[in-house]
Design brief:
The protein is α+β, with helices and mostly antiparallel strands and about 100 residues long. The protein contains 3 helices and 6 strands; from the N terminus they run βαββαβββα. The protein is globular, with a radius of gyration of 20 Å.
């Protein structure tokens, strides 16, 4: 089961996540999400636990706890939305009447 971990201190490494979650169960993968341009952590990551039971235990034990000087959020990761579903959605934002159609 894949878990979302938010509110991470910016200096958190993948090994820090493995060490933290290994206290609860077997970690199969851990990643800290970084900015493409700067390489700096975005303050969240993902941890994959070997069983659903271990993942649920990790949520119960670690959600709302401190890591460094920050309170972390741990919950079940949701599926990623399609790339085109964020931000500006094309002309749907504007009304059907445009400046040009009113003039002519």
């Amino acid at each position: 089961m894949r878990l979302y971990v938010g509110g991470l201190p910016y200096q958190t490494t993948e090994q820090d996540l493995v060490d933290l979650f290994a206290q609860v169960g077997q970690v199969t993968d851990a990643s800290v999400i970084t900015d493409r341009e700067t390489g700096r952590s975005k303050g969240f990551g993902f941890v994959e636990m070997s069983t659903t039971q271990q993942a649920q235990s990790a949520i119960e034990r670690l959600n709302g706890t401190l890591l460094g000087n920050r309170t972390i959020t741990v919950n079940e990761a949701r599926e990623r939305q399609a790339a085109g579903s964020r931000g500006f959605q094309g002309r749907e934002r504007y009304s059907n009447t445009s400046y040009r159609s009113e003039r002519y």
